[in-house]
Design brief:
The protein has helices at 18-43, 50-71, 73-79, 84-95, 159-163, 183-199, 235-243, 247-255, 278-283, 371-392; strands at 11-12, 81-83, 99-118, 124-141, 146-149, 153-154, 169-180, 205-214, 220-224, 258-270, 290-293, 296-299, 316-321, 346-353, 356-363. By secondary structure, the chain is an alpha+beta fold. The strands form 4 sheets. Strands 1, 2, 5, 7, 9 and 10 form a 6-stranded mixed β-sheet that branches. A 3-stranded antiparallel β-sheet has the order 4-3-8, with helices on one face. It has a 3-stranded mixed β-sheet with strand order 6-11-12, covered by helices on one side.
């Protein structure tokens, strides 16, 4: 169960939607028309009464134009420019970062106000206005006990850069896909949401909204994938064309050198079980996050598979207690520590490996000496005997 739809990774022709792009062009054309209008008004080609209208038109269109220019995705891409190697490190951090689903409510009511106005001739006129009054707002996180990243394989789509050498950047648009592990978690989510809304229902009306956030998350990232340096490319040039009222043409210039790719960072959450246990690993094994870079795959939230190496030669060690001296009982766990009056029992060891056959005996336990020290002294004894045999040969 997911709160947002995911995308297939694909290249697109433009960073903004077609409707938004049309609106941006409409605002730019309105600005050009307002500039022409005020030029004609100042030059006297239009009646003097049009001066006020020209001032209002140029003010409104200029404000709308600047808002559209600085809220554009192209502007945000240029503000987050990075390299291919850096974006892989950034994605690694995103794979290890939890996502938060935050509820928001705004309570309000409407007030009707009667306003009485008097004109210059002493006549009065009453008009009625309705105003919205906000009285209470609150926010709260959705509480879960476990989460796991299931984003799958991430790799930059550089196929376009191989075909067209002028494609020097990838416009990487990231989205957070918040998912629920099972129906029980979805039910808990709905219960928490309804409880939050009931506890914060403080007025006649209530608006509900939500946000999904991650620490350090950037939706728009401009990633360099080629050594080619496009002309007049960067935030400085964007600002210059913005103040020349030609920003839409500069956006077309930027798109000429970019590939647009979308990727969903998927986080699955649970309120009922631990998603980091072995059974959950098997369930999400095919969706675990990994990064493919320069033909190598690096896995995250998964045990790294070590390269296969040749197994070492087999070594068989047989250990058995040596027979106790005449008149002594075998040494066991219930026997006292060996002292001056009781010789420590010994252990006979036979070691077999390809081309090696060795046997030796050593004290099983010495008073006041730890097991690790006894084991070390035993292997030193084996090494000494091996050297003696070599000298005799």
């Amino acid at each position: 169960v997911s709160t947002q739809s995911t995308w297939d990774n694909k290249r697109m022709a433009s960073g903004d939607g077609s409707c938004i792009t049309c609106f941006y062009w409409f605002v730019s054309i309105s600005l050009w028309g307002s500039i022409l209008f005020i030029i004609l008004s100042v030059s006297g080609a239009l009646p003097q009464e049009c001066n006020t209208a020209a001032d209002v038109a140029i003010g409104i269109s200029a404000v709308m134009y600047l808002l559209c220019a600085f809220c554009s995705s192209t502007c945000r891409y240029l503000m987050h420019k990075t390299t291919g190697a850096d974006i892989y490190g950034y994605m690694q951090n995103m794979f290890y970062t939890p996502a938060y689903y935050i509820f928001h409510v705004q309570c309000y009511h409407y007030e009707t106000r009667h306003i009485t106005e008097r004109d210059s001739q002493g006549n009065t006129r009453t008009r009625t206005e309705t105003h919205r009054v906000n009285t209470h707002s609150a926010s709260e996180r959705f509480h879960y006990i476990s989460w796991r990243d299931v984003s799958g394989v991430f790799t930059l789509d550089t196929a376009g850069a191989l075909v067209n050498t002028k494609k020097a950047f990838v416009k990487l648009e990231l989205n957070i896909d918040f998912q629920f592990a099972n129906d029980g978690t979805l039910s808990d989510f709905e219960n928490q949401r309804e409880s939050f809304r009931r506890r914060n229902n403080r007025d006649t009306h209530q608006d509900y909204s939500y946000t999904i956030t991650m620490s350090g998350f950037n939706q728009y990232n401009l990633v360099r994938v080629s050594d080619y340096k496009p002309p007049c490319f960067g935030m400085t040039w964007y600002l210059l064309f913005t103040f020349l009222s030609l920003v839409e043409f500069y956006k077309m210039h930027v798109d000429r050198y970019c590939i647009v790719q979308k990727f969903a960072i998927q986080k699955v959450t649970s309120t009922r079980r631990d998603l980091n246990k072995a059974e959950a690993f098997v369930e999400y094994q095919t969706r675990l996050p990994c990064i493919m870079y320069l033909g190598q795959v690096t896995n995250y939230h998964e045990t790294t598979v070590m390269p296969q190496m040749a197994p070492p030669p087999a070594v068989e060690i047989t250990m058995q207690p040596a027979p106790p001296p005449m008149g002594m009982q075998p040494y066991g766990p219930n026997m006292p520590m060996p002292g001056p009056y009781m010789p420590a029992p010994t252990m006979q060891v036979q070691m077999q490996a390809p081309g090696i056959q060795m046997s030796a005996s050593a004290p099983l336990l010495q008073p006041g000496v730890t097991h690790s020290q006894n084991l070390l002294s035993f292997f030193l004894l084996i090494t000494k005997k091996k050297k003696k045999k070599k000298k005799k040969k």
